[in-house]
Input
Amino acid sequence: MATFISGGCKNGKSYFAQRVAKAYGAPLYYVATMIPHDDEDDARILRHRADRAGWGFETLECGRDVLACLERADARGSFLIDSATALLSNEMFAPDGFHAGAPDKVAAALVEFVRRAPNTVVVSDYIYSDAAVYDEWTLAYRRGLARVDRALAQACDCVCEAVAGQIIVYKGALP
Amino acid sequence: MIFIIGGSDQGKCAFARETLGAAEDDFFICGEETREIDFSRRCIAHIERFALGCVRRGESVEDYWRANAARLDGKVLIADDISCGIVPVDATLRAWREANGRANAFLAGRAERVWRVFCGLGQVIK
Output
């Protein structure tokens, strides 16, 4: 039974997701989706690694084509994918240019991922409630991430939002 | 009147179709250029864009809804929540954020039911 968690920045999504993966049971896999571009990204990765230290996760680096990491892992294990946001960004704004079809591709891949590996928790980011007027690229990205989120919310058994470290359940029960 | 709020692209109109039985031609979709709402339609969507148009024209969106309050019975009003980001640097967008918030509070106050839609899933908040 897969879990989808979203919410604002620094509201406890990753910590919650780590607990869900732990509850699913071993072996634990952490699907690391960030492709670092600068010192800030490197620092963020080190911070996340320190947060996970001692939890027993094996890290699978997978910035694109997320299904590929199932070939390097036991699909009966527990997977923490952090995050749908980074996966979409990597696919949509790739080194070879802009990919308008990335949202459909990422949504389909993640839905297939949770079908093949049901003990998966996917983290996303709630970026939908500000009063800004964006350029078309940003709008396409935001609309695209919403498409990915909604597909996952439909495919997952448990859907929740993290708010100030608290978990609001919209669908199903916590694992 | 039913009020549906949620972040952008969360599936609010789809929710109105699936849960409230709205049909495709029940919808009036507002734009910034909208000056008059078509109250013959059951569902009025993107009222935050209507609010931005009002602000750009120097009109009060809250006054518009108050003046048309009697026409809201039986309607479904659908709004993007734009209240949670950084305070915009641009004065018009800042005014929009505030005017929209006041209008939403008035509309949700009148509504018999308020839904918040998160990733396509509705939650009753009133």
